[in-house]
Specification:
about 425 residues, alpha/beta, nine-stranded mixed beta sheet, rSAM, Coproporphyrinogen-III_oxidase, rSAM_sf, STM4012 family radical SAM protein
């Protein structure tokens, strides 16, 4: 595998959503959460709409929705949120995010509704850190004022590139002047954390043009920057083009990494870089390995200990719209059932802990031992292979990826999938 591409798959959760299947019989929502700690949850609200669909995008989103569809979705979101609140009982949230899709495609009234639902569950962004995704095409002064008034402390925008020819190559009709005006607006509002996303590996992109985008991004002093390698997935616009996409990505990654490290940013993961001036985390501590995630909205995922669940997943426009339609037709009682997901047995919970830890801060053998009663290196002999290849090593008692390992995170993560998860993913029929 090391002789091939380092870009196998982006592993941001375990198991991947293509390993999810219908749960028969459906699980009562109260039972799913009954044994889980609910004192430091993450609330995620998913808005499944965008103004347009980028050529690389395989997120669960529908472009250009009709107003009546958005209104019906908001009504269903209310039914779901209130049913979930009843099932959770007394709960405390440590973090929250509104993502998508593009949340700021909603009008001001729609955004107010989403914030009001979060408040019903006990999330006030003035007390609980909250992040919201925005786009240059959909955010304006009124929506920024709303986000600010509600207490949002982090806004994230996918710029991808500051060169119009490059964003056009990934089917994104974006004007750089509009991006810059939006960034000026966001910065003037004084959000504590601004995150920008850039993509490397775009057709026609070079080391020089990527560095141009990096320099343009730093003019706005973002507290966080995410550098994403271009992935071309089934059923996307780019996925239908007969072309190889592995040119230059590794050299572009190294360019971006070295550029940001030289300017005082700290590398948190393969993708994430944090500025020295970024504010310290506030609020209660959220531990992704131990604390649950409550996902609201069609397309959102929830993590309740051994049960991970969501709506069904699709990429093709007709399929996505069909899943959204099924969601808006659900009554309150149906939101009390978990119908689609993955139940993690003890072995899969070990896999999840190992993978998510290794790709972030590293595997602490003491934490692993305390949680599972066994030794990580005994449970996973492949860790020795990573060490033998110079991809990981012990640092102050924590088993961490080396620089060579970090840049191969998208190879190492899938390599650590269990056989059962790998088999399910291979069987998945993209739709």
């Amino acid at each position: 595998m090391l002789e091939g591409t380092p870009y196998v798959a982006y592993l941001y959760g375990y198991p991947h959503k293509t390993a999810y299947r219908p749960l028969t019989p459906a699980l009562p929502l109260e039972d799913v959460w009954a044994k889980e700690r609910r004192d430091a949850l993450f609330l995620y609200l998913h808005v499944p709409f965008c103004e347009m669909r980028c050529g690389f995008c395989n997120l669960f989103t529908a472009a250009g929705p009709r107003e009546d569809v958005v209104a019906a979705w908001l009504a269903a979101l209310k039914r779901e949120a209130r049913r979930v609140k009843d099932a959770l009982g007394p709960s405390t949230f440590a973090r929250a995010a509104i993502g998508g899709g593009t949340p700021t495609l909603l009008d001001v009234a729609g955004l107010e509704t989403v914030f009001d639902l979060a408040a019903e569950l006990g999330v006030d962004p003035r007390d609980v850190p909250m992040s919201v995704e925005v786009s240059p095409e959909t955010v304006d002064a009124d929506k920024v004022a709303l986000l600010k008034a509600r207490g949002v402390d982090r806004v994230s925008m996918g710029v991808q590139s500051f060169l119009e020819a490059e964003v056009a190559a990934v089917k994104r009709p974006q004007k750089t002047a509009q991006v810059e005006a939006t960034l000026d607006l966001l910065r003037s509002a004084g959000f504590p954390t601004l995150n920008l996303d850039l993509i490397y590996g775009i057709e026609g992109q070079t080391v020089e043009t990527f560095q141009h985008s990096l320099e343009a991004a730093l003019r706005y002093a973002p507290e966080e920057l995410y550098l994403y390698p271009l992935y071309v997935r089934p059923l996307t616009f780019l996925g239908k083009k007969s072309r190889a996409w592995d040119d230059l990505r590794l050299s572009l990654y190294r360019t971006g990494r070295d550029f940001l490290l030289a300017r005082g940013y700290t590398q948190v993961s393969m993708r994430m870089f944090r500025a020295a001036h970024a504010p310290a985390a506030r609020g209660a501590v959220y531990r992704c390995q131990e604390d649950g995630m409550v996902g609201l909205g069609v397309g959102a995922r929830s993590y309740a200990g051994a049960v991970h669940y969501s709506s069904e997943y699709a990429v093709a426009s007709r399929e996505v719209r069909g899943i959204i339609q099924a969601y808006v037709e659900r009554d309150a009682a149906s939101f009390g059932e978990v119908r689609y997901g993955f139940v993690l047995d003890a072995a899969e919970q070990r896999h999840r802990h190992l993978v998510l830890s290794l790709l972030a801060e590293g595997v602490d053998p003491g934490v692993y031992r305390q949680r599972f009663g066994t030794e990580a290196k005994a449970d996973f002999p492949m860790l020795a292979e990573l060490e033998a290849h110079g991809l990981a090593r012990d640092v102050d008692g924590v088993f961490q990826l080396t620089a060579a390992g970090v840049e191969r995170s998208d190879l190492i993560g899938p390599w650590l999938d269990s056989e059962a998860v790998r088999a399910r993913m291979a069987e998945y029929a993209w739709r």
